[in-house]
Write a structure and sequence with these properties.
Elements lengths: L2 H8 L18 H14 L7 E7 L5 E7 L2 E3 L2 E7 L3 H8 L2 E8 L4 E11 L2 H10 L2 H9 L9 H14 L11 E15 L7 E7 L5 E6 L2
Antiparallel strand pairs: 1-2, 1-5, 3-4, 4-7, 5-6, 6-7, 7-8, 8-9
């Protein structure tokens, strides 16, 4: 191996938490998610609502990127984006997606698999109105995932939208809105000693019940 490979192979830290036991889990995965998310937020971790969204097209080509969770409830996990973006085009071809929350300081991950579906226009409108004005203008100015000639062109498009909406509310673009990921499985991963990590997977059985299984690390 090269010197750099040797260095990477030596990068290892022992997980120090006491692990996770079945008796500590809530029966409902959304209640368990709330407990872990609240702990991450209270610890003031950077962007605790950041999650990796993986999508695939009809041919099976997978892409991943970080998006921000903006709402969640018993129906699923919601994020917002441009409906012309690569992620949206892939979701249109294949709605099966995954989400991954990684909170390294707490030695925790939550992995979610499910189907993405568009939220209602009213939900998209409500969130769009709550965004900072500059973010609203940015959503209008950017044709997300499409090539752009230069930064100057992008800034000119932003200036054009700012002039167009110099007064009054900024209108939500028709091609921008929310997706809800309706989960089929939610897995909670807690680091533990000797790489014997604790993994518990909730699988949707018969609503509202969930099946809980411990997985080998």
């Amino acid at each position: 191996m090269s010197a750099r490979s040797d260095t990477l192979a030596a990068m290892r830290r022992e997980y120090a938490t006491r692990g996770l036991r079945r008796a500590e889990l809530a029966a409902d995965p959304f209640a368990q998610f709330r407990a872990w998310f609240d702990t991450a937020a209270a610890a003031e971790l950077p962007e605790p609502n950041a999650m990796t969204l993986s999508t695939a097209d009809a041919a099976g080509q997978v892409t991943s990127r970080t998006v921000l969770l903006k709402h969640w409830d018993a129906e699923g996990f919601v994020f917002f984006t441009n409906y012309g973006s690569l992620k949206a085009r892939q979701i249109a071809e294949n709605p099966r997606v995954s989400l991954l929350f990684t909170w390294i300081p707490q030695e925790r991950q939550i992995a979610i698999t499910g189907r993405a579906e568009k939220t209602s226009a009213s939900i998209s409108d409500e969130y769009f109105r709550a965004r900072p004005r500059t973010s609203q203008l940015g959503a209008r100015a950017s044709a997300q995932s499409c090539p752009v000639e230069s930064r100057a062109v992008l800034e000119a498009q932003f200036a054009e939208e700012r002039a167009r909406f110099a007064e009054g509310e900024v209108a939500r673009p028709e091609g921008w809105g929310g997706y809800r990921v309706v989960p089929g499985t939610i897995e909670f991963w807690q680091g533990s000693a000797s790489r014997l990590h604790d993994r518990f997977r909730y699988t949707r059985a018969q609503e509202p019940a969930w099946k809980i299984e411990r997985l080998s690390p």
